[in-house]
Every structure is written in structure tokens, then in C-alpha cells.
Here is the input.
Amino acid sequence: MVFSFDLLINAVISGILIGAFYAAVTAGVSLSFGILDIVNIAHPAFIILGSYIAYMVNAGLGLDPILASILATPIFYLLGAGIYQIYYVSFEKRGQESLRGLAFFFGLLFITEVVLVLYFGVDYRYVEAPYIGPTWHFGFVDIPLRILVPSLVSLLLITALQLVLTRTFTGRAIMAVAQDQLALKLMAVDPIRIKRIAFGISIASASLAGAFLIVIQPVEPSVGREYIGRVFAICVLGGMGSLPGTVIAAMLVGTVESLTATFYGPSWAPAVSFGFLLLTLALRPAGLLGR
Amino acid sequence: MRSGLFLMICLMVGAAIFGAALMLNNDYYFFAGYVVLQYVVLATAWNILGGYCGYVNFGSAAFFALGAYSTVALHKLYPLPVPLLVIVGGVISGIVGLGMGYLTLRLRGAFFAIATLALAVVLQTLIVNWDFVGGSRGAYIVRPEAIAPFGSYIKYLFLVMMLLAIGAINLARLIERSRLGYGFATIRDDELAAEASGVPTLRLKLIATTISGALMGMAGAPLPYYIGFLQPSSAFGLDYAVNAIAMPLIGGTTSWAGPLVGAVLLGSLQQLATVTISSAVNLLIVGLLLVGFVIIAPNGIIGLVQKYIRHRPVAQVGRRKIEADATGHVP
Here is the structure.
């Protein structure tokens, strides 16, 4: 293939935009896995669930998919809080989270996918919105709005989450729960309640990420599986629980994936995130901005 | 029970099952039985790492598919007899297991689990892009109609898988009762304490991933001959991964009997549900059973049975007597 400068610039820009979206997808995992130490491998399944809810609201009521997902966040929050409660009572309290807790989330991942397949079938679903379709052209650079809008909202979401984590009492308590639960108890804060809130927020973010996903590409139930490797690669690379690190790592992975897809073919792109994951684990397990 | 005696009993039970299937004179039983036996091997293999060491492998489908695809690749080069293919598949998957373990096992267990999950995606990407074994289109394997002295080929495959299952169970039982098994158990219970007492944890974990990966590859190696047409999406199917985890966890992870019980029960149930309801619904059943069991019965069916035996009134009388004897009082 002839090397093309236009192609390179376009690939890098779309990689960075997609990266911002990956950051929103990973933010929930950075919260649950990075901060709370809950290996929620079912997170991508909740994202797909979010996509389907956005799809249903969009197809049924004609509401904007991203707006629909914002309206759905309280439901996702309650779902997350409920799941954490089950997880806490059944596994964390008994000290069995490593083996059975993982199996529990794996089961949830599986059940969500199969239920979606049974209900919606395996056809690709897509949403309608005014920003899906048009593309902005700047010289030779093309920016499709269907990628730009979710990316910008993603960055807003990450900024909001970061502000909550660093500026509010609950947010600081969430950061503290990862460091010293006993000290938190001495400050008259119930660590379990804080973890429940944090896990609820983590799942609520999946609702938004799901809407972004279905705006960017058509969705079918097994799409989530591609995101498992990617999401955890980004989370580890970003330094486990650091949101700014997550954004940088997500843009890095997005760019490299986009370059791979452009110059070697899209079928090779899934291998990129795995390569990142293994390299990070082998060379720098603390991640880019690790504590 | 001594290992030799146990092996003899296993072989006798295997022969009895094979004989019974022959008596029924219907190849369907061989086709269905093959799948159940394949799950016995897969579940036992998963349990060697997951149950004994406490390290969760989500990528069972990857190791399984690796075995299947090594058969496809070899079949294109030179058709070998199935038992040899099983060994080759085992060696290749074992090496991949060792490599995976070496890269990730020095970190916390969760990283290993995530890496195995990602491994499945990447290996699938490689296979999809590898035209020699059919790529995304899949590959046809023409299996011989008949093979002497078994008559139909499926009987032969069934027998191979039966021997493999017996081998896997005996290996798991042997490991359980050896120094290796005790080492694995220390890793599962408290890795830090084990390390501090001089248990070579990394080496033991690598041994476990290698054995476990190799057995999974062996279980997958005859698959192309069984289904005749192999494509990446079926070889890497999520149902293999979920069954390999669900069966030991539902049966019980602490002994060789757990995966066997889980695989036979769940495997037969799925064969039944596939025929009577639908294959998507039967996967849902597996998922729900998995979640239900890990929450309600953490020690699986074997654990429930042990608990029941322990809490029987007769047993309690017996225990009271023992306690009384120990203290010197008569109740």
C-alpha cells in the first residue's frame, strides 16, 4: 500500500475521537475494577444493555438516544447498587470474591447476552438522530458527526466524574475506600454504602456509554465481547482507577487501533488491545499514570 | 483407594457405558455422549487450574479451539490418526498456556482472568485471518465413513474421547493426592503465606496452566472430525467457555468428582434441552444455574451432598459418641 499522509492524519484524528469514546466505556471499569477492586467483567454487557435501551426509546418515542440514556441512568444506578449488594453479601463478605465472584460476573455477562439474543435476535440495530449521517470536512480531514458528538459528550462525562471524585465528599470517600477502609470507618462513613454508590455510578455510566456505542455503530448482542479485552487493557494501561490516565490510554489505544485498521485491515484491530494489555502487564503493571 | 484400582474401575465403567451405547444401536447416543465426554475433559481441565489453584480461566474456548485448529492445519498437511492429533493439540495448547501464565501469573489473579478473556479474542482474530485453515469461511474436514473394527467413525471418536476423559479424571485425582495438589491448595487458600513458607508458587501455577491448557487442547483436537466443518465462531463459541466454568462450579471444585458430576448433569441436560427446547434457551439455563449455584451453594453439588451426609441424624449420634469418648463421659 502506498503511504498516504492524508490517510495517516485521518486515521490519527478518528483514533483520538474514538479514544474519547473508549474512555467513557472504560470509566465505569476504572471505578469498579480500578478503585473498588471489583472485577466486573460484565461491564460491557451492561453497555450493550444501555445500547438496547437507547434503541428502544429511540425507536418507540423518537427521543434522542443520548438524552434517553441520560434519563435511564437512575435505573442503571439502582441496578448497579442492587448487583453490588448481592455481590457483597454473597462473595465479598465471605472472602470468596476471587473465584466465585468472577464466575458470578461472568454468569451475568452471559445471561445478559443470551436474554438480549432471545428478545431482539442477532440482527444489528441502529438509532436515528440528526447528527448521524453528516460529516464535517476540513480540507482533507473528514470528521463524521456520529463520532464527534459521542466523543465530546464522553469527555464531558469524564470531566463530570473526575469533578465528583475530587470535589465532593462522597467522591473523596470513594477514592478513600480503595486506600483504607478502616480509616473511612473511623470518619463515620460506611465503606459498604460508599462502595454501593460507586458501583451504582459505574453501572450508570454504562448506560451513557451504551448510547454512544449505538450512535457510533450498529449494535448486536455479542458486540460487547470485543470490548472486554479493550476496556481492561485501557484500564490497566491508564493506571487502574485514574480517570486522566484512562483518557490518555484510551486515546492511545484508539489511535493505534485506527492506524492498524487503516494500514493492515480492520480484521486485525482486535489484536491491538490485547497486545497492549500483555505488554503493559509484562512491562509496567502500574500503568501510565499509576499510583 | 489405590490409583491402579481406581483406573481399573474407571475403565470398567467406561467399557460398560460403551457397551450400553452399542446395545442401543443408535448413533445418536454416540453423538450426544461424545459431547458430554468432551465436557468432562474440559471441566476437569478447567478445575485443575480454577478449582485447585483458584485461578479463573475464561479462555477455555481459546485453548479448546487451538486444539481443534491444530488438527485442521495438520489434516491439510498430512492426515494423522486421531490419537496422535490429540497429543499434538495438547502440546500446542499446553505451550500457549505456559506462555500466558508466564506473562500474567506474577500479578494478581484477576489479571490472569482478564488476559485469558482477551486471549480468546486475539486467537480468534489470528484464525480468522489465517487462510490456510479456512479463515472466517471455515474449513471442511472429510471424515472417513467407517473405520475397522468399530463400524461407524463416531464410535471410534466416542471411544477416543472416553479414554481421554478417563485419563483426565485419573490425572486430576492423582494431582489431588500428590505433593503437587497440596501445593496447589496452598496457593488457593493463601498464596502469600504459601510463598512465605517456601512453596514455589510461580512454578506450581505454571505447571497448572500447562496441564490445564494441554487437556483443553486435547479435548478440542478431535472436534473437526466430529462436526466435519469448523469455523472460528463455532470453535471459539462462548458456550465452551461458560460450560467449562459452570460445570466444575456447579459440581464442586475441590475434588475430581465435582467437574465429572457437573459435566455429566449439565451436559446431558443441555443435550436434552437442545433437542426439546432450543439451543439459546439451554445456554440461558446454564448461565442462571451458574449464578444461582455460586450464590447459594458455593461448594457445588458435591458440597451439598457432603453437608447432607454430615447433618444426618445418624451421623450426629456417631459424632456425639466420639466426642463423649474423647472427653471420657458417657452421655
Q: What stands out?
A: The first helix of chain A runs from residue 5 to 35. The interface with chain B takes residues 33, 39, 41, 86, 90-91, 94, 96, 98-100, 102-104, 106-108, 110-111, 113-115, 117-118, 222, 225-226, 228-229, 232-233, 236, 267-268, 270-271, 273-275, 277-278, 281-282, 285 of chain A (CB under 8 Å). Chain A has a mean pLDDT of 87. Strands of chain A lie at 135-138, 141-144.
